[in-house]
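== Protein entry: sequence and backbone fold ==
=== Local backbone shapes as whole numbers ===
==== Amino acids and backbone structure tokens ====
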Amino acid sequence: MRKISYYVVGLLVAAALGPAAGPGPDRADAAGRTAAEPDRPVAAEVGAAADPTGDITFSVPSGTFQNEVSVSLGSTVSGAQVRYTTDGQPPGPASPVYSGTPLRFTRTTQLRAQAYVSGTATGAPGTAMYVARAVTTNHDLPVLLLDAYGQGAPGREYIDAAVMEFRPTNGSTSLSASPSLVSRGAFHLRGNSSAMFPKTPYRLELRDNTDDDTDLPLLGMPADSDWVLRGPYTDKALIRDAFVHGLGQDMGLYAPRYAFAEVYVNTDAQPVAANDYLGVYLIVETIKNSKNRLDLKQLDEEDVTLPKLTGGYIFKFEWMAAEEPTLPCQGADATCWHYLEVVDPDPLQPAQRDWLRQHLQQFHDVLRSPNFADPATGYPSFVDVNSWVDMLIVNELTRGMDAYLRSAYFYKDRDSKIVAGPLWDFDLTFGVGGFFQNDQIAGWQHQQTRTPSANDWFQRLLQDPAFVNRVRARWQELRRGVLSNAQLQSRIDRLTAPLTAAAQRNFQRWPNLSTRMLGPFITPTSPTWQGQVQFMRDWMFQRAAWLETTGGWGSGGPTTPPTTPPVTGPPTPPATTPPASGRTCTAAYTVVSQWTGGFQANVRVTAGSSAISGWRVNWTFGNGQTVSQSWEATVTSSGSAVTATNVSHNGALSAGASTNFGFLGTWNGTNSPPTPTCTAS
């Protein structure tokens, strides 16, 4: 459990286990595949969980029902009397005795029972849950159902809930089917800015039949008691968090596992209905130190001396939102860190707090020393440099408005260096947000300013030429692999393929696709989910192209150039220059996006009424624009005159067929689109 302020209520029991995702980089993607083998389905592994029924027999197993359910009780304890409750409390000596007449329920009920012999509780207690249902919708994703027994919507404190997971059978998921997992649990509202939206994020804890947390697998992920339900709302592509988690895992960073599900949350006393449907959620592992999560050395309460004091710790920056325990910084306020929260161990002992604060202070002070980059005594002696390089690349590629400042995690194992990660909270990325300029393609996110600053650790590292060279080299390596446009596109395709029907249901429930401002955040306004995915893709490709420039980390073009970006303005009228052969082509020039000093343009080339074997496009800039980088064409300039010719694979076009090329350019003053001409061969 995360914080003492969240009081523990409720229990949870489970009926069955589901597929398990392996540790490390082999994490399930949206289609239930692992990152290491993206085309291989994860096989189901069914194991034995703690028996929720104990020594009690229930004539009807846990699940949903319509109208009414009738349940008889019994016991495996010979000669026992069965006492029961329906209010969530454990049965006691004064609880009603089961008389042999079936119990009839018309509303969601948690039925708990205990065998008694001669007035003494005997054997293990049992629990069954029956959730009233008035909805028949079929789904194709897994479904997660939480029913709060009519307690109303939760706040920041836990409330009891019945938890049921339903898996697809022959491609269809129904709440009327037998659930693959039935549990008692508790959940509460979570998140900062995301908590303001009607599609609410939740924290879920699973509990056993003795009031303790219980580790159970959920949606194919390894067993644990703590989970987060993230409901993409500003992220209308629905995949930003999952995309970054999977990408980070493949890069070698630690990121929680995840699974997509459609979620119902019923907080009133009525049966589960259509309006309890909350849409597509990402069910995510919490960040914690446990065997199936971030498996560090455990710091127990008695571990207050060296060498145990050196780890393991998990801490994070939460700008303006850090919770105790926090670590203070000593020094000038303008250069100190702020809002540094210790996540684990919990509770944190004074000696542990003092050691970690002192260690981070030493690192912080070394960054300000003249020899801060010395391999033996400088920052490399404190941090795992490779993870910091990769975290910087993820933050700059995604350009999240909270990058470096919120949900900025680090961890330190015993006798180890400080590692950047785990990854967390990437919904305000890839052009969503706008509050702190993160919607801009060009520029550096680490240069954003907020007062007081959370920390300047990455900015200081970037003052070391050796660190910058490592970033450049790593970027170029990744662009030949998992960050190539081809692999980025493939990752998007794998994530979105299982979501098509569910996305339609999600946006019927939350029709916000065309709404620009969601709370304080600027969001894309494509009227379709597919258009929202395309926006994310194109923004990412444009951002990667900028990072490829000499102003970024690159010296060449992207390994696989982007295809047609969306049109954001009317193209200039196409012009045709017919050659003597009668073969013709047209060219249409469009400014895709524009920022201070820079822009991206796309040119669409279309063959005329006859097939062509090659093409050349010419135009003249009238406002001093220049071309700095291009793809899908060989572009040369002479003063303001520009010539673009086809590359080997896109010169031959059948009659009426089209191809595209694009480029990045600079401008100063105005950026009027030129009128291109096209010559075919």
User: Anything to note?
Assistant: The radius of gyration is 29 Å. Confidence is low (pLDDT under 50) at residues 1-49, 556-580.
